[in-house]
């Protein structure tokens, strides 16, 4: 019973994460302001990271956890760079 519940919970989580990624991608494309697009990109990479984690949990492979860690690091750097660009107009001083 417990394994079956975990299996269906992970499938439901993956479906909801894909839906969240679709909503974030829509906001990324249609966002009226640049700040909306930065927040949508942030939500998109967090959803992608969580999707990789749920795939790793469902498949039992540790490679997905490494990919999720790489997505988290690159997403944080991208968000920081975009925020600095919006604040000052340049990334490297």
Order of helices and strands: HHH
Q: Major beta sheet, specifics?
A: none
Shape: elongated
Structural class label:
mainly alpha
Distance between the termini: 58 Å
Q: If you compute it from the alpha carbons, what radius of gyration comes out, rounded to the nearest whole angstrom?
A: 16 Å
Please report which band the strand proportion falls in: under 5%, 5-15%, 15-25%, 25-35%, 35-45% or over 45%.
under 5%
Q: Give the mean pLDDT.
A: 91
How many structural domains can be distinguished in the coordinates?
A: 1
**Oligomeric status of the shown chains?**
single chain
Number of E-type strands: 0
Report the CATH topology name.
Helix Hairpins
Overall CATH architecture: Orthogonal Bundle
- SS field, number of helical segments: 3
CATH class categorisation: Mainly Alpha
Structure description:
The protein has 93 residues and is mainly α. It has one domain: Helix Hairpins. The protein has three helices and no strands. The radius of gyration is 16 Å and the shape is elongated. The relative contact order is 0.12. The mean pLDDT is 91.
What is the element layout, followed by pairings?
Elements: H1 2-30, H2 34-59, H3 63-88
